[in-house]
Amino acid sequence: MSGIIEAKNLVKTYRRGREEIQALRNVDFGVDEGEFVSIIGPSGSGKTALLNVLGCLDTPTSGSLRLNGIETCGLKERELVKVRRDNIGFVFQQFYLMPTLTARENIELPLLFSHKDCNKCRIDEVLQMVGLADRGDHLPGQLSGGEMQRVAIGRALINDPRIILADEPTGNLDSATSQMIFELFRELNRKGLTLVIVTHNLELARQAQKMYTLRDGQIVGCEDLRCVAGAEIRQDVR
Ligand SMILES: Nc1ncnc2c1ncn2[C@@H]1O[C@H](COP(=O)(O)OP(=O)(O)O)[C@@H](O)[C@H]1O
Ligand SMILES: [Mg+2]
Q1: What is the spatial distance between Cα 28 and Cα 45, in angstroms, rounded to a whole number?
Q2: Does domain 5-237 have CATH number 3.40.50.300?
Q3: Spatial separation of the C-alpha atoms in residues 155 and 152, rounded to whole Å
Q4: CA dist list (Å): 16 to 21, 49, 59, 102
């Protein structure tokens, strides 16, 4: 089966003065379309490096990355921008919202760069999808942390990507709000979106379909959680 993300032998080496830091050491990583995958691992294990490479925010030192069937290694920056824009939505721990723009305007912002024709209905639809139908005219400062992250998720969705990559999206949120954000991710996944989420929180990570563990720049574990989820559903029915 061919995946929507197919990474082979990814190496990412950073240089700090004379020191060489191997953030990713020959990582093979694949995600099928429609999958919900989480990545856990200690601080410094290479989670952000991996996500940035998968999302074409950073280029690997070597290795290959196919996104939606397109080999990205060797593409020029302009081509890379297009692959990224057409396929990927990013969500970060810090929400990176523009404080002077309303929720609706923040969500609309990527359209400035994609030059996509997006009618008002699409923005309303996205506000609805992230549960902010009645908050569109609020400024970030008037929103809670969870609502700000919802705006950021809406902004990631506006260009209609196939994949959402999220780097510690609940790192700044309390546990109840984090759970609600994960429920939103699960809902988006049920609508067909592919999700790769980095988190420190094992309880949240286990709500994905597959959980990868990263250590010292290598994938050291992959757990399929689907049968566990099935068991839970059966319990609920009883
Ligand atoms: N721009 C950079 N320059 C030098 N070293 C970096 C840079 N970014 C990350 N690193 C190093 O690469 C390793 C992996 O970092 P990172 O991917 O941020 O880990 P994580 O997200 O799991 O905490 C760490 O040792 C980190 O110090
Ligand atoms: Mg990180």
Answers
A1: 15
A2: yes
A3: 5
A4: 7, 15, 17, 39
Q: Rounded to the nearest whole angstrom, what is the distance from the C-alpha of residue 168 to the centroid of ligand 2?
A: 7
Q: How far apart are CA 186 and CA 6, in angstroms?
A: 22
Ligand 1 centre from 192 Cα, in Å?
31
Nearest CA to ligand 1 atom 6: 14
CA dihedral 207→189→160→120, nearest 10 degrees, is -100
CB under 6 Å to ligand 1: residues?
Answer: 14, 16, 21, 23, 41, 43-49
Cα–Cα distance, 205 to 58 (Å, whole number)? 24
115 Cα to the center of ligand 2, angstroms = 31
Q: Is the pLDDT of residue 227 over 90?
A: no
Express each pLDDT in 47-76 by its tens digit.
Answer: 999 999 999 999 999 999 999 999 998 899
**Segment (H or E) for 14:** strand 5-16
